[in-house]
Write a structure and sequence with these properties.
Helix content is 27%, strand content 20%. The strands form two sheets. It has a seven-stranded mixed beta sheet with strand order 1-2-3-5-4-6-7, with helices on one face. A two-stranded antiparallel ribbon has the order 8-9. The protein is an alpha/beta fold and 360 residues long. The chain has two domains: 6-249, no CATH class; 258-360, no CATH class. The structure holds 2-acetamido-2-deoxy-beta-D-glucopyranose (NAG) (8 copies). Residues 46, 48-49 line the site of one 2-acetamido-2-deoxy-beta-D-glucopyranose. InterPro entries: Abhydrolase_dom.
């Protein structure tokens, strides 16, 4: 069971173990039919202009359901056994560099979030493409395909011609579908022949909870992934049942300190910025106070006054040098990628810090 942020790093660097050869799913595609002319959640923009290709494939096969043996204990050492098998057909959306030399060797596999009743992806950020990953997403749960119970907005409703034959009978098979996705990607059969060296599984929100359950229960059986990132799941795991959005009870995740009013809060400096943790340049060389607690999901930003900025950064050159140094420090800690040093530096160069009156 994942309880603290530091445990996350323990999940990075798992080594894929030999996978028992199971019948691989049948691959169909690239898919081109349909009324919309493109897949659901297609790249927003001209993907050729970033040197990538987007293709969609259907996978069909048989996937297993698991039984939980004993309790899902907080040490995360879980035992699963075979329950039954069901047939499925689903889709995988893949974006890969056109030029094989740009491929960095890693495929990121996102477990699509279906909490809203339709597919949402959250890991296909610009940096993924700049760094040369292959990005793939897998529909592993019934809701993404057939939509929610009321006002369904699944793939089938969106484009029945394209997606009408897809079917996932229940969410108990979602875990094995995700294992099978890794073998298909590793084969090169859906990536233009590019063979990934590493497969990294990521999921956020409900998918984060499922990825966490996968980490504890399924990864030890299949060894399908080299690294796993269960994100934004607050330490709560799904429980392998056929029901969607079904977290294990009593696993409330990491403990956050409370202040003397009993309110969850962090240790902060005089500007309200949190101390400790990962010091990205935004916090190491701040131009504002940031508070993520007071305003729901959005948080608040409190820009520093001109006089405070002048006191902190007497010249623009000093500000840029500090941001650049902080970016290199983050690179050294391996929490940002190399191109982001350039991005931070460029952003600092064009920032009006300290504030100047310009006549242009
Ligand atoms: C997309 O980008 C490619 C490469 O930059 C370009 O050749 C093509 O004309 C663009 N397509 C559209 C529709 O803009
Ligand atoms: C599993 O959990 C239940 C409820 O907390 C408890 O009664 C039971 O003893 C536990 N079983 C084992 C094998 O630990
Ligand atoms: C997952 O989906 C829910 C419902 O649409 C949404 O509120 C949430 O922000 C999504 N999570 C992520 C990480 O995208
Ligand atoms: C980094 O900067 C480049 C050029 O300014 C921009 O195209 C790109 O979107 C930026 N990437 C990120 C992740 O912000
Ligand atoms: C994962 O392991 C389970 C249990 O051994 C097995 O039934 C299943 O077929 C495996 N899946 C893959 C994709 O190897
Ligand atoms: C990849 O394609 C080859 C050739 O068709 C096939 O033998 C193999 O089973 C496929 N592997 C997977 C995992 O789809
Ligand atoms: C295991 O199989 C039984 C009988 O098919 C079913 O009722 C039960 O829901 C299954 N459990 C899981 C976790 O899929
Ligand atoms: C505790 O934190 C809340 C939320 O940030 C804040 O409103 C409150 O004033 C804090 N109490 C103390 C004693 O610092």
């Amino acid at each position: 069971m994942l309880r603290t942020l530091s445990s996350v790093s323990l999940l990075i660097g798992l080594h894929a173990i030999a996978v028992t050869a199971n019948k691989p799913p049948i691959i169909q595609g690239p898919i081109t039919v349909g009324t919309k002319g493109h897949p659901f959640s297609a790249y927003a923009g001209n993907i050729s202009s970033i040197g990538y290709v987007e293709e969609e494939f259907f996978l069909s096969g048989d996937a297993v359901r698991y039984n939980v043996v004993g309790n899902l204990t907080s040490d995360g050492h879980w035992t699963l056994s075979y329950n039954s098998t069901a047939s499925y057909k689903t889709r995988m959306l893949i974006r890969r560099p056109l030029d094989h030399k740009r491929f960095n060797g890693d495929v990121l596999v996102e477990w699509i979030n279906v909490s809203g009743g339709f597919d949402i992806t959250s890991t296909d950020l610009p940096g993924v493409y700049e760094a040369g990953y292959i990005w793939a997403s897998i529909d592993a749960q019934a809701t993404g395909i057939e939509g929610g119970a009321t006002n369904p907005q699944g793939l089938i409703q969106w484009d029945p011609v394209r997606y009408g034959t897809l079917n996932i009978p229940d969410d108990a098979i979602s875990y094995d579908i995700v294992s099978q996705a890794a073998s298909v990607l590793r084969s090169g059969n859906v990536t233009g022949g590019q063979i990934p060296e590493h497969a990294i599984l990521v999921g956020a929100s409900q998918s984060g909870s499922r990825v966490l359950g996968y980490t504890n229960g399924v990864q030890p059986l299949n060894g399908s992934y080299d690294a796993i990132i269960p994100a934004i799941c607050a330490g709560a795991s799904s429980d392998f049942s056929p029901v969607p959005a079904h977290p294990t009870p009593g696993q409330s995740g990491r403990t956050v300190a409370t202040n003397s009013s009993g309110v969850m809060d962090y240790v902060r400096d005089a500007d309200g910025n949190t101390k400790g943790g990962i010091r990205l340049p935004e916090l190491a060389v701040p131009v504002a106070g940031y508070n993520g607690i007071n305003n729901g999901l959005s948080g608040n930003t409190y820009p520093f006054s001109d006089s405070k900025l002048n006191a902190l950064y007497p010249t623009h050159q000093e500000y840029v040098a500090k941001v650049k140094a902080a970016a290199y420090a983050s690179l050294h800690e391996k929490v940002i990628l190399e191109y982001q040093v350039k991005n931070y530096t460029r952003a600092a160069e064009v920032a009006n810090v300290p504030p100047q009156c310009t006549s242009s």
